[in-house]
Amino acid sequence: MKFKLYSTKNQGLVNIQLADGDTHNEHCGGPTDEGYHWEAVSIEHCGHYLKRVDTTQAADCDGRLDTHSESTWCLSSGEVRDNGTLVWEKVSASQRDQFAEKAGY
Questions:
Q1: Backbone angles phi, psi at 59, to 5 degrees
Q2: Which residues fall within 8 angstroms of residue 47, CB to CB, at 6 or more apart?
Q3: Distance, CA of 48 to CA of 27 (rounded, Å)
């Protein structure tokens, strides 16, 4: 089964086709004025649903900040916005802020 998926990564909407069992990966990033920034998204077709994993990593003079989230979208009942993007259901999210850890938070 194939279908279209719209992704807002890389500064715009793109059509992506995934068959059952396929995975689409995107990443971007690079140096910044004070360190670096990197982000990635992975979308996997898992039979009756899609699984999305978003990861970011950044560092500046205050230290490193990492984020991670997982979301799903059900093929039979998932919501689609007017512009064709999917409304993802967040399953989990976490972050690690080294500056906050050093400050005792």
A1: -145, 140
A2: 20
A3: 25
Q: What pLDDT shows up at residue 7?
A: 67
50 pLDDT more than 90: yes
| More confident position, 34 or 4 | 34
Cα separation of 71 and 53, whole Å?
A: 7
For residues 41-60, give the mean pLDDT. Answer: 95
**C-alpha–C-alpha distance, residues 96 and 4, integer Å:** 33
21-37 residues labelled b (16+ CB within 10 A) or e (exposed): eeebeeeeeeeeeeeee
Q: How far apart are CA 29 and CA 56, in angstroms?
A: 9
